Amino acid sequence: MKLYSWNINGFRAVCAKPEWDWFKQLRADGGEVVVGLQETKANKEQVPGEHSDPPGWHSYWLSGLRKGYSGVAVFSSLTPLAVHYELPDPAWQGEGRLIHLEYADFHYLNVYFPNGQSGEERLKYKLGFYDAFLDYSETLRRQKPIVVCGDFNTAHHPIDLARPKENEGTSGFLPIERAWLDKFTGLGYLDTLRLVHGQREQQYSWWSFRMRARERNVGWRIDYFFVSAELESKVKDAWIEPEVRGSDHCPVGLELAL
What we know:
Largest sheet: 6 strands, mixed
Number of helices: 6
CATH topology: Deoxyribonuclease I, Chain A
Number of strands: 14
């Protein structure tokens, strides 16, 4: 099974670009595929049917109450056992940030975590969302293992961004945000890219649109696939696809041998 995650920064924009041919090639080898998208910025009804419900896929959409903001979607070649939307606590609902699919071997969580850069209030919301998500994941984990993907909006270690020193005071690399990722991984959630590739440098998934950052690879790695430790032996490969354009983020991938 191959799984992909991509913050597309607007589904209606990206599906009209040649870069969306990326999606059409994902099932070329005939295996099972799951695709989690973040920041769709659209209701399903706003998207042409061939893109909102592509033939041969099961599609699941969640938009926020605020139009043109946030939103997640999942396309799965495999029929899930169950589908759930949002975190259970209403305090963290309404922004369209989480779709949870249950499969036979694991719980799959596609999440667009909040950005904390617009001020203290949003940083507080982001940290609260982090904690609520972890509680939810740990509850699900009692039943079966976890696969979580998405835009976490935090670079974990200095190796995960090009300019760590300059960004020590920037949300996305604050000590308090990184401490939550320390806690998360300390509970046995494995960063699959590091599991497979170790401390390989210059592995980024987001680049500012400014100052030719992508061309110069001045980026951040804020898009991840984590698995709970029970799945460690099932991780066959993990990767980043920086050559795929169409968004300020690029896709990341995971292959599981189940």
